[in-house]
Design brief:
The protein is of the alpha+beta class. 34% of the residues lie in helices and 24% in strands. The protein is built from four helices and nine strands; from the N terminus they run H-E-E-E-E-E-E-H-E-E-E-H-H. 28% of the residues are buried.
């Protein structure tokens, strides 16, 4: 008895292997990358006006939160020449003068920012030229830890710091008479101190730095340009 075995021919070397050509692969990847980039740009351009409008609405709402009693506002810009009404050609940081129903100036809201635990925190503070004090605060943007860092915008006891925080100017009117400082919770003894929150020290320190820097910049100009502000009353 014999067994017949048939041997199949084997491919020689790599001659039978399927190799993907490099150029078509690179061309495909480049096409995908270009298309993805184009889509990102189109989405950004399409949503940019929506984002800007939402930020405008959020800021406008915050202005009336940090300026109690204000029912209308006039936008100004802090330029090299001081405070000027916002409008075409005006370049600088936006500040907002709030007026009561009687047309009297209730205060000025100005922005501030400082790096917190997670990222940069953006604030809006309300300033009353009559008492020369901060009368309100609002966090505009934050990624601080929920339940801890975000207490700087929700803890009612902490927010009492900004009911009348002293930001009086020095005799020359060029800077704050006293530096705004953060103290441990329950140890506040001066009207320019910010009583802290246990477990949110980094966020409180960021808020303190932001207010110190912004108040040093804005308050002297606001006090010096009160005539400009009141002249634009609605």
């Amino acid at each position: 008895m014999s067994i017949k075995v048939e041997l199949q021919p084997q491919p020689q070397g790599d001659a039978g292997a399927r190799v993907t050509p490099s150029w078509p692969m690179l061309r495909t990847l480049a096409g995908i990358a270009t298309l993805s980039g184009l889509l990102v740009v189109l989405v950004y351009q399409a949503t940019k006006p929506i984002i800007a409008e939402n930020e405008r609405i959020l800021t406008e709402k915050a202005v009336f939160e940090v300026l109690p009693g204000a029912v209308s506002k006039v936008d100004f810009v802090l330029s090299d020449q001081g405070l000027v009404p916002a409008g075409e050609g005006a370049v600088g940081v936006s500040v907002f003068a709030g007026f009561g129903a009687d047309g009297e100036l209730r205060g000025v809201a100005f922005p501030a920012a400082a790096r917190g635990y997670q990222d940069v925190i953006q604030f809006l503070f309300g300033y009353d030229p009559a008492c020369r004090c901060i009368i309100g605060s609002k966090v505009l943007r934050s990624t601080e830890t929920p339940g801890l860092g975000d207490k700087i915008d929700s803890d009612p006891v902490f927010l009492e710091n900004f009911a009348a925080l002293d930001v009086s100017l020095n005799p020359e009117g060029t800077g704050l008479a006293n530096p705004i400082v953060h103290v441990a919770q329950g140890t506040k003894t001066k009207p320019w101190q910010i009583d802290g929150i246990s477990g949110a020290t980094i966020s409180v320190k960021a808020m303190t730095r932001a207010l110190q820097d912004a108040a040093s910049r804005f308050v002297p100009t606001i006090q010096g340009d009160l005539a400009t502000l009141t002249a634009e009353a609605p």
